[in-house]
Amino acid sequence: MRVGELAKAVGKTVRAMHLYEELGLLEPASRSDGGFRMYGEDAIERINWIVKLQAIGFTLAEIQGFISEFQHAHTGRDATTRVRATFAEKLQSIRDQITQLRAIENDLLEAVEYLDSCQTCTPVYTPSSCGVCDHHGHHPDQAPRLFTGLARKEKEFDVPVEVLHRDQEDN
Description:
about 60% helix
């Protein structure tokens, strides 16, 4: 199949196919008499493999790097040891991200549960009462941290807002 057909088959652009080729991640099986790049079914598998690695969090440069290391290793054992180390490092990184996401999930669940009880609150209270109220089983100053950041008055923050804005402008 030609490059356009391959791109369509994998849901990518022709430019992406050319980029993969430029990076050494994909090679045409042959060229047609007219000079067109021709790819076999194995190219679809190769692109799906690249897409999976990207979904895992590898950049194209990282994929290019460990393919090169694999191909230039002196022995199969050296090659697989390097790939294993790369995959193990990525696995640890993903586990760390999962731990962080679980903590974030818990913070969000706590905030949503707290805010659910606010839905029956009387409309006479202003937003400045939120987060410090004693209604619906709430206890003053015990609102979830995600919500108290929103409900706090500017003067309650540790750092004045003006300093934060100045620091952002400096960057």
